[in-house]
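Record Endonuclease III, 283 aa.
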Amino acid sequence: MSAESSSAVGEQPSAKPKKSAKAAKPESHLAMVRRARRINRELAELYPYAHPELDFSNAFELLVATVLSAQTTDLRVNQTTPGLFAKYPTPEDLAAAVPEELEEVIRPTGFFRAKAKSLIGLSTALRDRFGGEVPPRIEDLVTLPGVGRKTANVVLGNAFGVPGLTVDTHFGRLVRRWKWTDAQDPEKVEADVAAIFPKSEWTMLSHRIIFHGRRVCHSRKPACGACSIAPLCPAYGEGETDPEKAKKLLKYELAGKPGQRLSPPSDYPGRPAPPLGAPEGGA
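=>
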C-alpha cells in the first residue's frame, strides 16, 4: 500500500485480489508468516494512530475500564467511567463501595451486579495484597477477581509497556480469517500469533487488528471492497466486494463518525465520542 493510499482517512484502494483458475497450492508456514507480517505492515500504515480505545489516566483506571468492557462497547464504558472514578478514584475507595451504589453507577455497561462484585473484589485484593497498586506481572494480575489473560495483557501493554497480545472477539475473528491460526481457545490463539511476530510488535499488533475488526472486517458484513489488505486475505469475498457499497459499511473515523473515546489521543484523526446521554452521531 502506498503512502498516498493511506494518507486520507476513509479513502480505501479498490480491492483486486489475485484470481486463479487452478487450485491454489497449500500455503507453507513460511509463506503464511511472511503474509502475516506484511498484513501487519499494511495495518500500521492504515492505522498509525491505533491506540487502546478505553479512556484512562493510570493503571488502576485501565484495569477497571477493561473489566467493565466485557459484553459492552468501549464507548459505553468511556461514557460511564468519568462518574465512576469521580466517586471511587482509588482501589481503597472502590474496595469500600456499597455494592448497590456501585451497581447504579456502572449500570449502563450491563451485567452490573457481576461487574460490581468483580470490581470490589479486585480492589480489595489490590488494597490488601499489593499495597493499593496494580501489579505489573501477568502472574499477579490473573489472580484478581474478574481478570483473565486478555485483561491482564491490556493493562500490561498499555499501562506498563510490557508486550502482550489482546485476544478479544475481533482479534480472534480476524486472525482466523487470515489463517494465522485455526484455534478457538484464546490462549492457543495467543500462542499461535505470538510465534509469528517479535515480542516488540505484540501490543501494537493487537491495537491494529482490533481497529481493523471494528472499522472494516466486521463479523457479519465485512467491508471487503473497501479493505486495503484484501489482496492478502484468504477470506476475501465473505463480505461486500463492491467498493461503493463496502464504503457504506465502514465505521468510526473511516466513516466520518465519532470514535469510542471521549478523550482520544492527539493524533486521532476522527471526532471524540459524546458523553453519556448525548447523541452519538451515528457511531
